[in-house]
Write a structure and sequence with these properties.
single chain, 342 residues, alpha/beta, 7 strands, 41% helix, seven-stranded mixed beta sheet, Rossmann fold
Length: 342
């Protein structure tokens, strides 16, 4: 031990200063990064989840050979059966039937005219017997002669009041929680999500921004012809009883090219009506992602594919592997199907 008290005191002070400085530097040092939150918590860990995450990482990592500029990060989603329940009846058709019943007092001739007569009698077999022609006739009768703003308000009102007969929930709560997470995940990574569905564009625009976070200008659907009319309340766009464009099958990539003007790099569907959209998306250059939702969970939702008149999936099942697409099984890929009620 040093016998000089002055040197001992200086040495102790230097030691104390070094200890204080070391503690301060340790406090200022950056902490190790926390593990990233799971972007898809309702998905089971498996090949499909890993494929989605790997694709997003590849196209958003600058310097990667698969990097895609934000302007070209376009993802397209079918709606019925891909984002919300479509079985055993399309939600829009449930709305059409209720609206026919509501309008019937103003149209007494419907009491003796098919398929309206069957609707009013509650005879769904009779309605089904009218075929596609009858379905279109009902849709146009329910959705014509009304301006677009009033029609969307009517759809919004119906969504608040109507309940799915099996699940006893509002129809707009029967969305798929894993797909809602996927929409948010893509958006957070610079994607522009579009809905490209066979449903009427004006019907979907009543709820898509609220439910999916997809604004109206990114919703592509089947269109009715319309007219610009100036009435007492001012200018209006009035829906006419004629179909202008059917947004299904080959119509989907045609509409994507006409409206979006960019070839998507990711596409999600669930039926053969989405086949052309996935084909158009995934055969382009660079990294691509195509996925089909397979309804194989009768306990939590429904099980249907090849022989279904709703959301038929036959060609997609036969060819998805050759096309390089993923097949999302509700039963094994999703921890939950529907989000909890608020």
């Amino acid at each position: 031990m040093d016998s000089n008290p002055i040197r001992t005191l200086i040495s102790r002070r230097r030691w104390l200063a070094a200890a204080v400085l070391s503690t301060a530097l340790a406090a200022c040092a950056p902490l190790p990064p926390a593990p990233a939150a799971d972007p898809l918590p309702s998905w089971n860990d498996g090949a499909n989840k890993q494929r989605i995450v790997a694709f997003v990482r590849a196209v958003t990592t600058e310097g990667s050979r698969d990097y895609v500029a934000p302007a070209d990060r376009v993802a397209v989603f079918d709606n019925d059966g891909t984002l919300w329940v479509e079985y055993p009846m399309y939600t829009q058709f449930a709305f059409v039937l209720d609206r026919i019943r509501a309008l019937a007092p103003q149209r007494p001739e419907w009491n003796d005219k098919e398929p309206f007569k069957s609707v009013l009698a509650g005879d769904m077999r009779g309605v089904a017997a009218s075929g596609e022609k009858g379905m279109i006739e009902l849709l146009l009768a329910a959705q014509s002669g009304i301006d677009t703003a009033t029609f969307r308000a009517e759809v919004s009102r119906w969504l608040k009041e109507a309940r799915d007969p099996r699940f006893k929930r509002p129809f707009d709560t029967l969305t798929y929680q894993p797909m809602l997470e996927l929409l948010r995940y893509l958006q957070a990574n610079g994607f522009k999500n579009y809905i490209v569905s066979g449903g009427s564009v004006e019907f979907m625009r009543a709820f898509t921004e609220r439910v999916y976070g997809v604004p109206n200008e990114r919703v592509l659907g089947t269109r009715q012809k319309a007219a610009f009319e100036v009435k007492a309340g001012g200018p209006q766009i009035v829906m006419l009883p004629q179909i202008d464009f059917v947004n299904d099958k080959d119509g989907k990539p045609i509409n994507i090219e006409a409206v979006i003007g960019r070839r998507p790099i990711a596409a999600f569907g669930n039926s053969d009506g989405d086949f052309a959209m996935l084909q158009w998306t995934t055969t382009g250059p660079g990294a691509r992602l195509g996925m089909l939702v397979h309804h194989d969970d009768a306990a939590r939702e429904y099980a249907y594919d090849r022989n279904s008149s709703i959301g038929r999936l036959a060609e997609g099942l036969d060819k998805y592997q050759a096309m390089g697409w993923g097949l999302i099984g509700m039963k094994n890929d999703w921890k939950v199907v529907f989000p909890p009620l608020p």
